[in-house]
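Page 42, continued from yesterday. The earlier attempt failed because a stray header line got pasted into the input along with the sequence. Redoing it now with the clean sequence only.
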Amino acid sequence: MTPLTQAPVPRWHAPPAFSEALGSYVHRLRLTCGTVAGIPAHASVSWWMTVRAPLGMPPGPEHLTWALEQPDGFVAVARVVVTVP
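This time it went through. Structure tokens are written below.
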């Protein structure tokens, strides 16, 4: 995933929260990283990740939205179409 920021993301000392939405399934977690330097506006940062489809989700194409969250709102969002096996 390579989310694009709309505004500068300040340096964070605690891992920020993020959300994954796959169809109607939404999951919120925290990144497992240490201190990260700030991210400039309109820049991108890439993460490698694995997303498991919920049990019972029908196979086929589905929209996956990933958002980095800060206390003042979402700051970076990536949207892709994935194929549920």
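Notes: The radius of gyration is 14 Å.
Reminder to self: strip header lines before submitting.
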